[in-house]
Amino acid sequence: MPFWFWLIAAIVAIYAFHRLFRWMESRGWIYYTRSGNHSTRAGNAMLNIQQLFEPSKKHVIEMKQSQRPQLDVSGDPPSPPRDDHSEEER
Hints:
Elements: H1 3-26, H2 38-53, H3 58-67, H4 85-88
């Protein structure tokens, strides 16, 4: 069989698997293209492990945790900081 036949067959097969995986993701069976922040979670876990062996990495973990938005008891995001200077100028 000619080369172009196998090339077209491979492209069709890749596209078919892509559509199958997208359908499976829409059903909630797998994470394929719309997965959220898996690398971030894995990176944070590795930083915590690395902290055991290199205590100097603790400041990186503390900085990442301080940048994370904190939720209050009601579950609402924190309110933006007030600008006290705007009232003084009036």
